[in-house]
Amino acid sequence: MSKNRNAAIIGSGMSEFSSHREDVNQPEMIHEAVIEALRDADIALEDVDCLLHGNMELFEMVHQPDMWHVLGDGARGKSGLRLTTGGTTGITLACAADNLVASGLHDVVLAIGFEKLQEGHTTGGITNMADPLWGRSLQTGALTGTGAQKVIDEFGEERAKLAAMKYRTIMDEHAMRNEKAHRRLRLERQYIKETADNSPPLVGELRMIHMCSQSDGACAVVFASEEKVRALGANPAWIVDHETVHREETMVFGSMLSTQRAAAERLFARAGIANPRGDIDVFEMYDPSAWWGVDWLRDFLLLEGDEHLKMIENDEIVLDGPFPVNPSGGVIASNPIGATALVRVAEAAMQVRGTAGAHQVSKPVRRALASGFGGTLWTVLMLLSKEKPERRVNTHG
Amino acid sequence: MNDAFVIEGKMALPYQYFAGAVGSKFLVALRDEKQILGVRCSRCGMVFVPPRQSCERCFSALTEHWVRVESTGEVTGFTVVRYAEPYQPKKPPYVLALIKLDGADTPIAHLLECGDPGRARIGMRVRAVFAGERRANLLAIAHFEEDPAGTQEGHSPARL
Amino acid sequence: MAEETSVPERIVSRQVLAIPQRFSTGPVMGRFLRELRDHKRIMANKCPKCGRHQLPPREVCAVCHVEATGWEELPPEGAIRDFDVVYYASPDPLTGETRQVPYVLCWVDLDGTQGDAPLWHLLNVENLAEVRRGVRVRVVFADERHGTTEDIRHFEIIREEASPGAGTGAES
Fold first, then answer.
1. For chain C, which residues make up each domain, given as ranges?
2. What residues of chain C lie within 8 A of the CB of B14, using their CB?
3. Distance from CA of residue A231 to its chain's centroid?
């Protein structure tokens, strides 16, 4: 299979991210993101051919939200699809938008992810994802301490805990530079240990401070064909490729498939990326907790041993460092779940387009990577570039 | 041998829905002043009841132009509900009607009490009967009833 | 509105949504749950290709994607592979009621298990310091069993010095 034509992101918008948005209902919150995205892309609603809409019903228990949200999202009279794939929903929307534009079916696609987690019970909603006959009575949403234990087992308690909190603190430093971020805590590096010790334990060594937030918010991203990019004179972030890897088991660890590593291996092989840290300039990772952020860095970048810990210890992942991770502050800072993985794509595109403002990385960005996480620990990866991909991307048939 | 059987389950979770600033203004006026508010789109002229923040047609912001519409109106569509299930507002049979209030361009759905459900007609003039208790939802209006004397004589919504 | 109040009221509608559900076990999970209920037996199914067990059993091997047709009984004893001490009081999704914390979840490799197929359940333990990987545990079955997950009440730590039959499980 190959793409018929290239697709690019030409604009994005986000609502305010917050733990509470009593001031707006769901379509009104989405409207904020849509208006900003259209303005950023410098297009009108009439220019949009198709809307993609995604979140998870159990978080708000509004059935067919795409129907109700026509009031605010601009879908009236347009083609549309609704997608919901768990935590990956947002980046699945981006993959679908790429497919719809690259296939030639639509010229301009608006992808919208949202969640109003304040309106439901996040952990209860996630728990109902589990098999009703088995895991549902045992699962604790997305909360588990096994990810932390894995890092502790391998690198020792002291080094592992310091790395997790260093990662957490760097994410907060980034969030402090992103005015849209929800949790901006002003964490200080000299108090790393005290901050962790004073944070309520959730499960095992996973504490509140390590965990992603529960946010209300929406994100909208405009995708356009290369013909449209030219006609509009847009500032594009081109989509090089995307990859999705699933697995079936939810909570079996150990030797089971790392979907992070598998997705990276396949995507990088197709894109000719031999040295991820050198060939990619910035990474927006869906990091549900500091522990998983630390652990998955190794898999996503195809590293071995303790190279990923050294990257954190040596400040390589900071905004002005050689390999910035989550200049936005990541998921630990802001997590409106149905929007979260689309925010990763939007933030990666902002870095490529040079529109990230106060959290724009200092190095030039030629390629940016975005990831999504969800369901039974599955992964979606998307690679963006400043340069228009020269050859049509050949994906495995 | 087929070992399959059925297990009874239940899913129970707490939820809340925020009306937002626009929806709250509408519901508070309905509850406290028995007034029905809408918004007018300055571009296409439509008066939306209940109010909304933006026009779904032209996407322009609406909340600068609040209006008050009448509590009388006309049935634009209806159905007779004859089956019973636990979540219904009342015991069937009953009439669920679309009612365009005088001064509004969009209908609201509500209960219509007109004696025998067979009497319901499109074009029937109706008026709101407010509930005795104060409620911050559309059931602040208990139901609509027939208003035989009522006529639709060029109602224009009052600006607020 | 002639006058705006300084803090406008925000209307919110609150409710607990409770939806009754009915789940068909299908033949594979159905056999597993029937064996638990009727015979207090833990039956794993087995992949004919890679030989790994699956607990609870599923129709298809999660790794090889072939029908996992074989069945084997596994003993109700094994060693803790992983565990979670849960401090976060989440609602039980089946009832909406908040759970008592802390409690312990564990993944147990039952003796003789092939591959990655730990049995996941609660661990009943007073002293959290006793919870470690490798600790030997046994399944405690519920007295009244209905063909559900709760037919296994929990795991408990096997104490070598305890007299045989001191546990509440195997004989009940």
1. 26-157
2. 14-17, 91, 96
3. 29
